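Hi Y.,

Following your request, here is the sequence exactly as I used it, all 309 residues.
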Amino acid sequence: MSNQQSAVAAQQEEKNITTSVLAKITAFQQSGELRIPNDYSPENALKSAWLVLQETVDSNKQPVLTTCSKESIANALLKMVVWGLSPLKKQGDFIAYGTKLEFTPEYTGNLVLAKRYGGLIDHNQRAIFKGDEFEFETDLEFPYRTRIIKHKQSLENIGGEVIGAYFAYELSDGTKDVEIMNISQIKLAWAQGGSKGNSGAHKNFSDQMAIKTVINRGCKLLIRSSDDSVLYEKEDQQYDAVTDQVRTEIRANANKQTISFEDAVIVEETKSRDAIKEKKPASIPDEPKRSAMQPNENPGGDDQVEMNF
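Below is the corresponding structure, written out as tokens. Let me know if you'd prefer a different format.
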């Protein structure tokens, strides 16, 4: 296949996948099952996501667009749009687990979701270094809010050994609280990631990585406890390829469907947009119209699109 043919094939694949995702999103919106934030453009997000995907590789340094299944790519993009996040703004990452692609929010994405759904209006965060004078207390009465009494640093301490981090925040109802983690808790969280906390970033910028970790923890609690909580995976850990393949096989027999590429509107260069028709698979029955739902819910139910948040 020539370079020109490869480019045309890649462009056609992008059209097929993004058209399939947009068709699902449009169907959910028209049926009142999904509401997209006013300041979010699914079309722009998908275009920018595809640019990111073109440069994303798996653990073997192979392009995810060639090693991951089209269905998992489509569902990762769908998850991104339902959450209203953008990888171009570093709000989330595309990660390959074997042949399956997943979209996972970054700490910046969690802040966006906490502001959108968790009532977060202001926040600040700091690393705690060895030698700092740090004191906090928790109310003795419900709801047992935590406050920082003292955090005094010296210039010499900054950049030294990290012993903890905190994320202080204020909510729209006036609530003020603090999420605090010591270094043991932080390292346990790091151990759940693919690098096990041994990456260059963890070693050279441990204070910034500690801050990101405590932000993620605090934001996820806000999002999950809100009325419009966004669905996350039950376990905040990254699975290796073998574990993921086992889970994929189990799901394949659990009466769930991913986006089928029979749904995709195949765009041919010689046809106009007016001639495009969408083919609806007979295996997916019509469902009764449901009341409007926020992006936290699984659009269409378990038997339509595998969201697996």
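The beta strands are 92-97, 100-105, 120-129, 133-138, 146-152, 162-171, 176-182.

Thanks again,
Q.
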